[in-house]
From TrEMBL:
Transmembrane segments: none annotated. CDD domains: ASKHA_NBD_PilM. Residues 15-183 form the SHS2 domain. This is Pilus assembly protein PilM. Gene3D superfamilies: 3.30.1490.300, 3.30.420.40. InterPro entries: ATPase_NBD (IPR043129), FtsA/MreB (IPR050696), PilM (IPR005883), SHS2_FtsA (IPR003494). Pfam families: PilM_2. One of its GO terms (biological process) is cell division.
Length: 360
């Protein structure tokens, strides 16, 4: 069986979580603080030019590899082991029920047989992995097994990218799994430690926003909504006659924009964003027995915009908060608070990958 990198392996040594998106590379390294809690050791973001990565595919390998080298230098870390992730669109995951008590070899044979029925391309082209979740709730004597598969070239592209930057890829995860792992800490701060709550996790990207509805660490629904932070950048550039690059920088810092920006540009965008997120939730309600969520968590670059949680709560009617994946962690003394406030919401996936270091 071809190892998947591995989706479910655990790596106790120092580890970098590196998130590869269409517009940026993001790095997080975590350790333990003196109090035994998590400590943020390093974090950094490196921008990518448009088209270098498209729909999860690395189109400009050499340029992205050089950007990854810059990212590691910028972060100031010496760690070489890395955890990477594939977009959900590149991975097929299925839960199957298999007899309990199988040996590892017998389990591999059964998983391959199940995978052959689930996967629409030859197993010889597939990187395959599995994880035993636990006893089946509906089939006594059986275990639930999570099977994950991706085309080998998708895995090898990211492995090769890390190696070209002088890094050692030891874990290949799925972005949505990494997001949920990082979000777990925020969910546990909700009432009743988040138990049995329906939590809508929105990741607001540049071009689109991903929704995962989570209950007790399980994703029960997911959807992409065609709204993202790039739309605000474009409006700023058009409204004030500046370049997209300058508009993006001013959007992030909130500095240097005219006095009418909050009401003329920002608030209409936030209202539209809230409406689109509400529309995504309506799709969830109409396709499931549910008609509400208990809490909304916002992440991604645009989640750092002032007033975003209030706007989403107004448009949806559900309690909403911004997810800072570093909340409660010991922070490095040399990390500027202004930079952290501007960037923290972008590090959800990278933080989830970095947390793999501490998984048993």
């Amino acid at each position: 069986m071809t190892a998947f990198g591995s989706l479910f392996s655990r790596e106790p040594a120092p580890l970098l979580g590196i998130d590869i998106s269409s517009t940026t590379l993001k790095l997080v390294e975590l350790g333990r603080g003196r109090n035994g809690g998590y400590a943020l050791l390093h974090c950094a973001i490196e921008p990518l030019d448009k088209g270098w990565i498209a729909e999860g595919n690395i189109e400009k390998f050499d340029e992205v590899a050089e950007a990854l080298r810059r990212l590691v230098r910028k972060a100031g870390t010496k760690t070489k082991n890395v955890a990477l992730a594939l977009p959900g669109s590149a991975v097929i995951t299925r839960k199957v029920s298999l007899p309990a008590g199988l040996t590892e070899d017998e389990l591999e044979v059964q998983v391959e047989a199940e995978a052959a029925q689930l996967i629409p391309f030859p197993l010889s082209e597939v990187a395959l992995d599995f994880c035993v979740i636990g006893p089946s709730a509906t089939a006594p004597g059986y275990n639930e097994v999570l099977v994950a598969a991706s085309r080998k070239e998708k895995v090898s592209d990211r492995q090769g990218l890390a190696e070209a930057a002088g890094l050692n890829p030891v874990i290949m995860d799925v972005e949505s799994y990494a997001s949920r792992l990082a979000a777990r800490r925020a969910i546990e701060r909700l009432p009743n430690q988040g138990n049995n709550l329906l939590v809508a996790l929105f990741e607001i990207g540049s071009q689109s926003t991903g929704l995962q509805v989570i209950r007790n660490d399980e994703m029960i629904y997911e959807r992409d909504q065609p709204v993202g932070g790039a739309a605000l950048t474009q409006v700023i550039a058009r409204q004030y006659g500046i370049s997209l690059e300058e508009a993006e920088q001013k959007k992030k810092t909130g500095n240097g924009l005219p006095a009418d920006y909050p009401q003329t540009v920002l608030q209409p965008f936030l209202d539209t964003l809230g409406q689109e997120l509400g529309r995504a939730l309506q799709f969830f309600f109409t396709s499931t027995p549910h008609n509400k969520v208990d809490h909304i968590l916002l992440s991604g670059g645009a989640a750092s915009l002032p007033g975003v949680a209030e706007a989403v709560m107004t448009q949806t009617g559900f309690a909403t908060s911004v997810l800072n994946p570093f909340e409660g962690m010991t922070l490095p003394p040399n990390l500027p608070a202004a930079r952290l406030a501007m960037e923290a919401t972008s590090y959800l996936v990278a933080t989830g990958l970095a947390l793999r270091r501490f998984m048993p």
